[in-house]
Write a structure and sequence with these properties.
Belongs to the thymidylate kinase family. One of its GO terms (molecular function) is dTMP kinase activity. It is an enzyme of class 2 (transferase). ATP binds at residues 11-18. With 204 residues, the protein is an alpha/beta fold. The protein has a single domain (5-198), classed as P-loop containing nucleotide triphosphate hydrolases (Rossmann fold, 3-Layer(aba) Sandwich), CATH 3.40.50.300. Helices cover 55% and strands 13% of the residues. Strands 2-3-1-4-5 form a five-stranded parallel sheet, sandwiched between helices. Helix 2 (45-56) packs antiparallel against helix 3, helix 4 runs antiparallel to helix 5 and helix 4 (96-106) packs across helix 7. The protein binds adenosine-5'-triphosphate and ligand LXEULUCI.
């Protein structure tokens, strides 16, 4: 049986990551892989219900962190771990790097507390590879404005998204063996080519 692989897609809102997950899944399926596409917060009925609250209700940074980790626990237990145990490739739209970037760097919440929650919830599980779609906050804001009405997080100002982006940069610098940085200011086709190239060497 193939070894399961856990691949996460990260970036500030509007960076373009969601646009490329399905193409990545198709390319992997064409290689004979079984693929599970999922997202955070979300991926289970409970976690999707928490997502709805998270994106719509006002709350402080600790409540945000507790909600995303509660959703993550259910998601790991019910979807991610079983899929990896079956040898599937799990493509996940956001994971704990988002918590560190948004709640940690964006909100200024204590990174050590987040790391403790991470240890409790994940029991050592980490992504095998993380594709970080990097764009300036101004570019992402223009893409979002052209695409949809903003949710609670997307109503934050450019300074917030600058801090979140800096958070992703810090995470990428701290774990260069796991992170692949994608220049997401490039055209859709160029980004897609780069994404597919990063998924060619996933191993057996
Ligand atoms: N490389 C690109 N060039 C121009 N427009 C793009 C590019 N990538 C994505 N877009 C457009 O930007 C918008 C946001 O893309 P997408 O929803 O994939 O971003 P996202 O990073 O998943 O955002 P979120 O995390 O908030 O859901 C969409 O309208 C999409 O068509
Ligand atoms: C996992 C996670 C997510 N967020 C934020 C990031 C986005 O603003 C939304 C999710 O919406 P998307 O359209 O699916 O990107 O939630 C967060 O703040 N912390 C997290 O851990």
């Amino acid at each position: 049986m193939p070894v399961g692989r856990f691949i996460t897609f990260e970036g500030i809102d509007g960076a373009g990551k969601s646009s490329h997950i399905e193409a990545a899944a198709e390319a992997l399926r064409a290689q004979g892989r079984s693929v599970c596409c999922t997202r955070e917060p979300g991926g289970t009925a409970l976690a999707e219900a928490l997502r709805e609250l998270f994106l719509s209700r006002e709350m402080d940074a600790l409540t945000e962190a507790l909600l995303v980790f509660a959703a993550r626990r259910d998601h790991l237990r019910c979807v991610i771990e079983p899929a990896l145990a079956q040898g599937q490739v799990v493509l996940c739209d956001r994971f704990t790097d988002a918590t560190m970037a948004y709640q940690g760097f964006g909100r200024g919440f204590d990174l050590n507390v987040l790391a403790q929650l991470e240890a409790w919830v994940q029991a050592g599980r980490q992504p095998d590879r993380t594709l970080w779609f990097d764009v300036p906050a101004t570019v992402a804001a223009a893409r979002r404005a052209a695409a949809r009405a903003p949710d609670r997080l997307e109503r934050e100002d450019l300074a917030f998204f600058d801090r979140v982006r800096a958070g992703y940069a810090a995470r990428a610098e701290a774990a260069p063996q796991r992170f692949v940085t994608i220049d997401a200011t490039a055209s859709m086709d160029a980004v897609r080519t780069r994404v597919l190239a990063t998924l060619h060497d996933l191993g057996p």
